Amino acid sequence: MMLDYNSLLSALGVSSVCLLLTLSGTWLGRRDPSFLFSWVVGLGVCVAGIISYSFFISAPTALVGAMAMIFMQWGSCILYGAAEQFRTDRFPLLRVVSAASLASVSITTAFLTDYWGLGFILLNLGATVAFLATAHQYWLAKSESPGILTGITLLYGVVAVSFFPCAMTLIQNGSWVLHTAPSGLAEDVNIAFCIAGMTGIGGLSLTAHQARITAQHRLEAMTDSLTGLSNRRALFETYKHRRFRDHMAILVFDIDRFKSINDQYGHAVGDQIIQTVARELQAAAGVDIAARLGGEEFAAVVEDAMPGRAEWIGERIRKQLQEREIVIEGESLRVTTSVGICYGTPSGLTFDEILKHADDALYCAKRMGRNRVEVTSLPVPTAAALNRA
Questions:
Q1: In the chain, count of helices (H) and strands (E)?
Q2: Residues of CATH 1.20.1070 domain(s) within the chain?
């Protein structure tokens, strides 16, 4: 037996409320200012519109009809805002309020002047535009999670397209003045698509939210909290399956006499010095990735290291740090660093191997008096590398 429009509307209302409760519970579990909160607000406003519309169907009045249409228009605009917030981390408040307010004034005017059909046309066209714009936002963000966000894009597109025939049917029939809710095949298809689409969108939105949280946790696990550089784990993860050929090099930096600085000035000053070194490494031209290995030790990878280039980079960073004046409570402090460098080989070195050679060069720099750059004697740059240069 075919379901009538009221049954479909009730199904949409129940599924939307259940989805709203699920998303609200997920957001309350974290209370972070994410797109999920905006999504919950938008869906909540849409639910208010569905409830108002059910009252309008039972007892049609201009006020209730206008209220239902306004809720739905605001809800669709807020859902667009949530999509842009997902992509840019900013909610487009001015754009959402402006679009929803303009649509609300137009719809209210239509209902209060007895042009209910025009009000329904405006709502359907407005929802089409809002949901297409929402789909576009997720499409722009699809590189973050291609499968999930492409699915959300398609579902929003289907929902958007389902509103358009409702408007066109009313326009073709010249139904500018109505005293009841429009009904027909277009409306039945629209509400069926909304039930399927919004349920799927809700599930995929939760999945996208969890995927983003997982990615954030992974990033935090790979980042040194004091400096913002990659940590030792991230460096090993990046290069564990790669071999360092003779066009690559690694530089290891160590702050000279750091323990004495910590003992004399305290750990807060030590942290400030570590952050200073980290900023120099981040800003250094030619460095592909810089990481804090732990304590006062850092590493930098140069993937295009023609002979002599790694030494030039290391020497430049060493001089810049030596010349940098750090003011601590009115007292000027200068720090120096020792640098150990190792180039790859034609056959390639593992990351563990090249890091060990660079450490050996670093210890040599320490033994030779600190504040200097040393290159490990094995392996040496090859003739092939010289020819490339």
A1: 13, 8
A2: 5-221
Q: How many whole angstroms from its chain centre is CA 72?
A: 28
pTM, two decimal places:
0.70
Q: How does DSSP classify residue 382?
A: P
Is the Cα torsion angle 174, 176, 182, 187 positive or negative in sign?
positive
Give CA–CA dist 83/59, Å, rounded: 35
Q: What is the CATH number of domain 230-388?
A: 3.30.70.270
Write the Ramachandran bin of 370: left for phi over 0, alpha for psi from -120 to 50, otherwise beta. left
pLDDT tens string 119-133: 999 999 999 999 999
pLDDT band at 192 (very low <50, low <70, confident <90, very high): confident
Whether the Cβ atoms of residue 310 and residue 284 lie closer than 8 Å to each other? no
What token pair was written down for 184? 């027909």
- pLDDT at residue 106 above 60? yes
pLDDT of amino acid 381: 46
Give the mean pLDDT of 240-259: 93
Residue 209's Cβ-count burial label (10 Å; 0-12, 13-18, 19+) is buried
**63 Cα distance to chain centroid:** 41
Find out if CATH 1.20.1070 is the number for domain 5-221.
yes
Give span(s): CATH 3.30.70.270, the chain.
Answer: 230-388
Report pLDDT for 6: 65
Query: In angstroms, what CA-CA distances link 257 with 121, 251, 334, 356?
Result: 76, 19, 11, 21
pLDDT at 37 over 90: no
